[in-house]
Design brief:
CATH class of the largest domain: Alpha Beta
Order of helices and strands: EHEHEHEHEHHHEHEEHEHEHEEH
Largest sheet: 7 strands, parallel
Helix content: 25-40%
Length: 328
Amino acid sequence: MKLLIVVHHHFDLWNVPAWFPEKLRTDFPLLEVSHRTNYDGVEEYLRDAEILFAFSLRPEQFGFAQKLRWIHAPTAAVHQLLFPELVKSNVVITNAHEVHGPVVAEHVIALIFALAKKIPQAARLQEKRVWGQDAIWKDAPRPREVAGATLGLIGLGSIGRRVARMAAALGMRVIALREHPENERPEGVAAVYAPAQLNDVLSQSDYVVVAAPLTESTRALMNADRLRAMRPDAYLINVGRGPQVDDAALANALRNRLIAGAALDVFEHEPLPANSPLWELENLLITPHTAGLTEKLWQRHYALFSENLRRYLAGEPLLFVVDKKKGY
């Protein structure tokens, strides 16, 4: 049985470390493991691969993979794999949302505190050697307490569930939006709403956190109308996917103080172009897609993937299987 690992990314952390395939060969000696650091000539390797570990695969490459039965994506998002040929096939897709969820949830909490305590403003004043106590207090909205605030979660997946528990432990009231509100309510969530009730969630929330998968229904979800439904003293945080927020509408809302501010970790175009108007907005905190960064990343990947590999070889159900029709 052959496993093909092929990952190529300009950001070093996203690339598979050398120890990863070596440990797989040691722990699964009957498995033939091929590791490629780019897609050059990958078609020859795909011909005999039964398992693929990769971020992406093009339709023409998939045509060579006649023996392929399982693709594992070391990402939470899998929209890049959901072309018609693969969706209609019997190939199973699993993802790594449980790898990234705990780390991204910590980042969300950090952003909430940064916005509530006006840390970005303090950092800018520090660079100018300005003692800005008076300025920070007088520039609305003023520094506030996190306890007692309402957090509106869009999405209750791996990230959302962890954010809910952490936020509730801080004394926040957590409300959430998800596709099936009738399902069991996760720990820390006070109320769950259906997608049609999004404006109800937005109008109640001091902090709105987008942590949903990218689907046709969530693309440009936070548009001008949705931003107007938010409270003028509320903050928007996006750790989901860049296309879920309308950048132009957000820039307008921030520039005209229709909402208090925002924090974005993901963008439709990455790296964010130097000429993007988002850079100029003082009430926007930008983190460069760093919410999921951790020195433990590949140890987490190995723990998840090796357990699923053990299950696959034993004929047991896999964990974190993607519904290819839903897209997550």
